[in-house]
Amino acid sequence: MYDSIDTAGRILRAAEKLFAEQGFKGTTMRQITTEADVNLAAVNYHFGSKTGLIHAVAGHTLEPLCQDIEAALAEHGRTEVVPLGPLLNILASALVRIHQSNPYALSVLMRCLEQAYRPNQAELQAFLLNTYGARLHHFLQHLRHGSGVEGESEFFWRLHFLLGSVVFTLSNLHALVALDAESDSDETALEPVLRRLVPVLTAGMQAPVQREIS
């Protein structure tokens, strides 16, 4: 007989694997209970609902990511300004570490970010904002300062261009590596890809505002 903590852990691991492979919408509760070898009542007892389980799986990735970023920023002190390049390297390093510790973490994180921007996702948006908004506030302050752009609207759009670039790249990582004619198709290619991505993101965040298309 499995104890309560072990049962919750098996449900979480099963859901994480299936969500990473199939997405949130594409994964049924029956698939999760089969993978975890539990009944539906156990899922409801520990997580309340599929939504509660999605939040728990998201937190399983976001919590260590936030802790890593917070620890790196703490080394610079509360008043020291972190330049944009090193700041994005902090994010990249945190992503590499969660990927190394959990093979499903990046896929879950990318799916979570994609899902949050779809229609009728107010509950997920509220969960992410209320749980992690304050945790990432210091990082976003540095990002805002490092971008050097004027106006909140301009920063809003550049932030989302940055997010879009990261989500597209990491969601399609293996396909992009396979398409690279000079790549050795190493499935652990996250770090070199992020090394290429960081300077592009840095330049994009700091690019002059273009007033017209000509």
Automatic annotation (TrEMBL):
Gene Ontology MF annotations: DNA-binding transcription factor activity; transcription cis-regulatory region binding
DNA-binding region: 28-47
Domain annotation HTH tetR-type: ranges: 5-65
InterPro entries: DNA-bd_HTH_TetR-type_CS, Homeodomain-like_sf, HTH-type_TetR-like_transc_reg, HTH_TetR, PsrA_TetR_C, Tet_transcr_reg_TetR-rel_C_sf
Pfam families referenced in this protein's UniProt entry, alphabetically: TetR_C_30, TetR_N
Source species, domain of life: Bacteria
Alphabetical UniProt keywords: DNA-binding
Name of this chain's protein: Transcriptional regulator, TetR family
